[in-house]
Description:
The structure is a homodimer of 241-residue chains. The first copy, chain A, has helices at residues 11-14, 22-33, 47-60, 78-85, 94-104, 147-158, 177-190, 218-231; strands at residues 3-9, 36-43, 63-67, 90-92, 117-119, 123-127, 130-137, 140-143, 167-173, 195-200, 209-215, 237-240.
Amino acid sequence: xxxxxxxxxxxxxxxxxxxxxxxxxxxxxxxxxxxxxxxxxxxxxxxxxxxxxxxxxxxxxxxxxxxxxxxxxxxxxxxxxxxxxxxxxxxxxxxxxxxxxxxxxxxxxxxxxxxxxxxxxxxxxxxxxxxxxxxxxxxxxxxxxxxxxxxxxxxxxxxxxxxxxxxxxxxxxxxxxxxxxxxxxxxxxxxxxxxxxxxxxxxxxxxxxxxxxxxxxxxxxxxxxxxxxxxxxxxxxxxxx
Amino acid sequence: xxxxxxxxxxxxxxxxxxxxxxxxxxxxxxxxxxxxxxxxxxxxxxxxxxxxxxxxxxxxxxxxxxxxxxxxxxxxxxxxxxxxxxxxxxxxxxxxxxxxxxxxxxxxxxxxxxxxxxxxxxxxxxxxxxxxxxxxxxxxxxxxxxxxxxxxxxxxxxxxxxxxxxxxxxxxxxxxxxxxxxxxxxxxxxxxxxxxxxxxxxxxxxxxxxxxxxxxxxxxxxxxxxxxxxxxxxxxxxxxx
Lengths: 241, 241
């Protein structure tokens, strides 16, 4: 299965000034496509740290997505970090610079050249109706941190990723998690490949545990669900969907 | 300054089924105390991955906080991972087991022994009015994933951390970020120690950039703010607070 890592770059997240909404968005999207997100890492705007983590994630996962640090100011050092990760020089992309100049008109100034300065060999692709293109280096997609732009830009990536979607079933259980733990363990002995989640809920009036059963094989999932329901006490099931 | 790392353990976050609210909560709290949160890492419920990352974070930061994976079910393997990180055996804490039995009464069963099975030498401390204590190993605080419990339990940690709070000033600027980028660069040459953030906002009617100025030294911060305001064009400042 294709795997992915997500690198969130931004002091504003670590200092609690901004809530990272890109991670939950990306996690849901990748799940829908069927790409396994294996790691979400938030780090400061620091060239060496970015370089180290980009290099590692690029090695460990099929796809890497980064968020943040590609604007015109002093604290936007993601391109520097990605360039360093792959030992590439940074170069002005003249076509991109012209494009930024056209898009920003009277507001264009020298600091925007920074936004057109990319690691040598970076891939510059059209990105839907956004004037700023989608930029990638090796298997690393470099996205902006602003959520509305991040989300729009993800559409261009989505088309380029192939996964096998995972099917999810949910069972809402009225018993305490500890009362059903042994049944779950037995289920996993019978269905070793089942992805089984067990999540206690303390503020729900109608159930105490949400179980999630997942698989890329629908038949396998159906059989596991049937086996689970047969194991649980009759009166303990609130709902299945 | 004291530093911290936060390790979020949970497939449910990576698969997009649950939104991680513990990270923004912890980031804000640590900022208030004045502890520098340097990394937030989300990983799956996997003993070896947990062990590796706990060992690394414990080495890299003064304090480590983990979230999730300490319940009674098969996918709760945080204690196993922490034990492995420090090469410690897992042992039943009889006093804790008795405590769990008293707190859960009729619902107590074998699977709850798992919740009382801790790495040898783990520190078990009272945690406010919560019946489940605060557990730590070396410099690693092991917290539950359920947000209401995580937040309550953090109170016990808060008392044990000493930081120097950071003071924050905000400047809301009507100009585009690219128009003020050079002024920000000059400011940072004059005030090298200033923590300066620049965040473009595209949906605000009254301003285009939020600047944040931060320092642990109030006098230094005041001088930097004065210098910034003198650099920016007169009509570009929407608000300062």
